[in-house]
């Protein structure tokens, strides 16, 4: 277990080292855009009705940057994840293939969640600074809390909390699903190519990879309404359109767990038995 934890720590450091640069890009990018909007009043968010302060505008722009940076970080994690899977150096450590794959997959998940928390902390700091510099914002927030304490604005936590946790669970399971799906395409393409005679294994592998990608895309596009609802449910929930779908969060989570387990078992089998590492 000591080797497992050491590799987990090293992999987590490897996958999280670009986080600071992405956060810095988001903070500076939103700051520069806010400066541009402040200089050129009357365009974009800089001249919105309501007299938002400079820092409040900055926080608002950063939240937009953070949304796209999160997906950028998620995609970057898979390239690192794929590199570790192919790395002969990582395969030579005294750890079984199954545990190494688990290490690699879990660290990708932890790094992605950590990055989301990192973004939320930066957004919270900017929002707090906005409250300190914007009297209108402080007044509006105070009015909201007064309404909650007085009972004029009722928040049903018994409904909101389970639904929010359910949405987060579906999003996490969906994130795992895409990683496992792409891993399956990579592993199976190389596995099939290894059984094809000839010296042009790389060409065969790329062709098989492309065919599998087209096949999986077609299956996804042709899937029934359950699969579509799984991916659309979080956005429907956030926009208050949950009633348009007939599937609830518990069913969506169960179906995603089944999909994840199937692809996880297939990936572990292919990775352990057939997927070969490279010296690079």
Description:
- It is a single chain.
- The chain contains 10 helices and no strands.
- By secondary structure, it is mostly helical.
Q: Could you give a quick summary of the protein structure above?
A:
This protein is mainly alpha-helical and 280 residues long. The chain contains 10 helices and no strands.
Keywords:
elongated; mainly alpha; 80% helix; 280 residues
Task: Please describe the topology of this protein.
Blueprint: H1 2-16, H2 19-39, H3 54-86, H4 88-91, H5 97-133, H6 135-150, H7 157-194, H8 201-221, H9 225-238, H10 249-273
Cα gyration radius (Å): 23 Å
Instruction: Give the termini separation.
Output: 27 Å
Mean pLDDT: 76
Judging from the principal axes of the Cα atoms, what is the shape? elongated
Q: What structural class is derived from the secondary structure elements?
A: mainly alpha
Major β-sheet annotation: none
Low-confidence region ranges: 43-50
Name the helix and strand elements from N-terminus to C-terminus, one letter apiece: HHHHHHHHHH
Count up the helices: 10
Percentage of residues in strands: under 5%
Number of strands: 0
Helical residues, percent = over 70%
